[in-house]
Design brief:
Blueprint (H helix, E strand, L loop, with lengths): L2 H14 L3 E7 L9 E6 L3 H17 L3
Antiparallel strand pairs: 1-2
Length: 64
């Protein structure tokens, strides 16, 4: 799985869990830390925590 595919998968997971303003930003030309950042917002701290946990779970399931 390429880094772009990973970023898209994360964005899909966030969208499915009703995250708001999901964006995938290419930052490879700006930093050496990452190739892409996935940003999203939630309506409460509880929802944001749930979003993060779901992304972590789904990426582990995908072997990442």
């Amino acid at each position: 799985m390429t880094s772009l595919e990973e970023a898209k998968k994360i964005a899909e997971v966030l969208d499915a869990k009703k995250a708001q303003e999901v964006k995938v930003l290419k930052v490879a030309d700006l930093t050496f830390v990452a190739e892409y950042f996935v940003l999203a917002t939630g309506t409460s701290s509880t929802q944001v925590k749930s979003l993060a946990e779901e992304v972590e779970f789904q990426m582990k399931e995908a072997g990442r």
